[in-house]
Amino acid sequence: MAHKFLLAFDKFKDSMTAHAATMRARQVIEKFCPDASIHEAPLTDGGEGFCAILTQAASGTLETQETCGPRFEALGAQIGFVDAERVPAESLASLNLPASVERIAVIEMAQAAGIQSVPVTERDARFCTSFGVGQQLLKAIEERADAILLGVGGSATSDLGLGALEALGFEFYDSQRIRVEKITPALFPEIAFIERPDTQETIPAIRIACDVNNPLLGPHGAAHVFGPQKGLTSEYIPQLDGEVDRLARLLCGACKADFSLVETPGAGAAGGIAAGLLIALGAELVSGFSLVRSWLRLETALQEADFLITGEGKWDASSLDGKGPFAVIDAVSDRAVDVLLVAGALDAEATLPLRDSLNGNLYTLELKDSEKSLQENLVEGPRRLSELMEVFFAEKSL
Q: What is the Cα–Cα distance from 49 to 252, expressed in whole angstroms?
């Protein structure tokens, strides 16, 4: 029987994009299953690829502007503009936008404050800013977008979005009322006052696409869960969590917002920028995968596929919190669909819930070679994907 394959990879951080993984998987399938039907659906949960994938799917336009990067370096960052009438009705409904919205700006935080912009050996969120994201928001406002869709995956920052708010005109002062500028977590202890600009009426509706459920603070919050991958030490993380708590309260006071917003599931996304924008700009959170699923009209492909191949850089317990690969596996779990899960590093225990829920078979591939360094594994990831998939298909005789 000729299989109907659905290729739905997320990115393999620092190794290959979702598109690159998809291309390699297609080549292997075409070699071993020449009669197969293949549907490609590179995933984005708000991280790398979010802007281009959604903008192109809606026949929009992409513009590039010079933007401040996570370490205050100059970067070129894309921003997309799409006509609301070209967005699937289901996607528009999920965004809960005013009926008057005609033009939507699509922004990808990873373009201006992405962790991929910082070399692995130099990552330290204490000195990283989301200022460039604020510049992107300003660009959308200047271009008269009626609404802004912001994807916040793949960030290098842990600054509560204060850098972005600084770009939008928020001002920060120390106890002597001296201005504190170029905000990063390293400067958090200096901030004693926050002042909000009188520009609230110019901010269009903002929707934040993400697929994590973490609150801002505590053991499941932004600093504790995501800080280590951004270079934060275990000794520093509790200090940062305390500072973020204090500054979130200051921000709530300046914006007359309820502090309970920090407990919103997903408020801890992208170093807390979600919480910062919820508090300061009245943003709302939406499911990144659900949005992409409807925006790219994946429903038909999900219903027709009998073999799903998906994966990401690291599969662990956090992958079960609604990230793209888990969500797409869950979407086919009620049918007899076989699944091949590919990961750069694979926690076998974190696959047990999948095995319990799937009606089809679950196969796994781990790209990591335990005898090689992290950097070597990242470089060789694409080649390993091709090689291991060839071995898999040769042995399974699909």
A: 32
DSSP string, 102-155: -EEEEEEHHHHHBGGGS-GGG--GGG---HHHHHHHHHHHHTT-SEEEEE--SB
Q: Per-residue confidence at 389, pLDDT binned at 50, 70, 90?
A: very high
The answer to whether the beta carbons of residues 199 and 168 sit under 8 Å apart is yes
If pLDDT is split at 50, 70 and 90, which confidence band does 1 have? low
Which pLDDT tens digit goes with each residue over 17-50? 888 899 999 999 999 999 999 988 888 767 778 8
Which residues make Cβ contacts (< 8 Å) with residue 277, sequence separation at least 6?
Answer: 150, 161, 164, 206, 208, 283
304, 293 Cβ separation under 8 angstroms: no
Kindly list the distances between the CA atom of residue 103 and the CA atoms of 46, 99, 100, 291, 369, in Å, as whole numbers in the listed order: 19, 11, 9, 17, 47
pTM: 0.80
